[in-house]
Amino acid sequence: MPALVNYGGDDDFYSGGSFFTNSTDLGRLCSISSQVDVYCPPRKRARISAPFLFGETEFEQNKQPSIDVLPEECLFEIFKRLPGGKERSSCACVSKHWLMLLTSIRKSEYESSKVVKENNDLVSEDVEMISSDEDDGYLTRCLEGKRATDMRLAAVAVGTSGHGGLGKLSIRGSSSSCGVTNFGLSAIARGCPSLKALSLWNIPRVGDGGLSEIAKECHLLEKLDLCQCLSVSNKGLIAIAENCPNLTSLSIESCPKIGNEGLQAIGKLCPKLQSISIKDCPLVGDHGVSSLLASASSVLSKVKLQGLNITDFSLAVIGHYGKSVTNLMLSGLQNVSEKGFWVMGNAQGLQKLASLMITSCWGVTDVSLEAMGKGCTNLKQMCLRRCCFLSDDGLVAFAKSAGSLECLQLEECNRVTQSGIIGVLSNCGLKSLTLVKCLGIKDMSVGAPLSSPCNSLKSLSVRNCSGFGTASLAMVGKLCPQLQHVDLSGLYGITDAGLLPLLESCEAGLVKVNLSGCLNLTDEVVLALTRLHGGTLELLNLDGCRRITDSSLVAVADNCVFLSDLDVSRCAITDSGAAALSHAEQLNLQVLSFSGCSGVSNKSMPFLKKLGNTLVGLNLQHCNSISSRTVELLVESLWRCDILS
């Protein structure tokens, strides 16, 4: 026993500091002399075959996780065997390295590409569903500006694979420094074979390589929209044509490297193409456009050609092969002459054309317009903008020949006068007429009586035509007694005396009336309008009519039954007008605007609260007499109403 107690071996005895972690156990040593060593069981020596690094922190810093030392080939094989999208997303969150590895794996290379079971997080965490890896592509993603990077696209490619598949992708305004490149688009191609719609706007660093990867992997692609893709050329477009036979819609804008060869391939290899839009592509000419239209003539229904270097030949091809075209838009075709439009009409191929829009084309003259009217027998909508050589004679001849015409819009056609408008209304069954900035229309006295009124016209819009005044309004009132929608915005020259005859002649009852910017109108017009058409009026816009006062709102409250949209911005409205509206029992306003009405103050708060029972939109911008605190209280009270302040 003495030998045991007095043994001083370092291996078997502990000398010095306490090895007890509990203070109770430590107290048991109080009766033992401090000179006596305590016996401990023998400790095993550790065998060290490598240099030992002292210090726990230093040891942990030099210790690497075992999975990181695996070569990428091994990680690739591991990731291929992940059971589903949820597990892939979890692995992608570990590091950028793992994310990049996951995006390098094609969807078809996963072992679970046939049928997998995974939790449907969108429905319930406890419900399992069986989903096919051949996803239908229900998800939509849009990346704009600084958010559009390769890393985000890689995350989208991995994350959407287990939640229905990516169907639509839109990338807009990518930053030039760290924006989207071919790498990001390739990640989408490998991870999202279900992609059906791709839109790339202002992506200068994406070129043929990225688009070729999309074509190689995304065979279900149906819609492609390229805008300001400076690096995409015919090579990328040809790859799309060769690998995406389901393409139905193609839009190309400001792509300077795309030319005729790409369009030829699209026409030959995409038999389902239904819509084509080409704008501001300097390399596109007659050869590409004519080949495309001739090859895809059987199903092509929508054609938009803007700012192209094409000539009369392309329009002749459109007129001959456009048998399925229903919507045609031609803009800025400076090299197309009168002959081109004349041939397009006389070719008799546009029998199904229902909508035609022509903008800034010098070839539109009286002769060519009449030919188009005769050749497009089913034309229902016609829009002519900035056609400076068009006059009254051509417009009337077109109206006579286009027997199916229902809607006509003229914008900045300054050679058209009041006589041309009267001729159009007297010779065709128009339902809608729109005149915008037609400076040639001026008041004049009509000598002969208007014997044939246009009873079919339901909608009249005359905007910013400075010469359209009292006489013109009287003429319209007599000629069009069945008007229901009237838009006279920007006609600052009209007065009460000119508008009252029009209101009195409308027999069907006005439904929508826009008088914004008519500075000289007074309460007398509103009183007559509500008295004559209060039972049918649904929309009334008096924005900027500065002579309109509370009396008009009293008339609205008393006579309007179905009014849902009222705009009295920048009018002489006060709290009394708001009170009158709130006291109307039959009124159910949904949209109300007091913008710029300085006479509306905090006193209108209870009236606005009462109106808020039906309102979904309230505009109080620039109401300087309404405090921010009042607006906050209104926002709290009218929680279902969108308030602008």
UniProtKB/TrEMBL annotation:
Taxonomic source organism: Herrania umbratica
BP GO terms, sorted: SCF-dependent proteasomal ubiquitin-dependent protein catabolic process
Protein name: EIN3-binding F-box protein 1-like isoform X1
Gene3D superfamilies assigned: 1.20.1280.50, Ribonuclease Inhibitor
Record-linked InterPro entries: F-box-like_dom_sf, F-box_dom, FBXL15_LRR, Leu-rich_rpt_Cys-con_subtyp, LRR_dom_sf
GO cellular component labels: SCF ubiquitin ligase complex
Segments passing through the bilayer: none
Entries under Pfam families matching the protein: DUF7885 (PF25372), F-box-like (PF12937)
UniProt domain F-box: residue ranges: 70-112
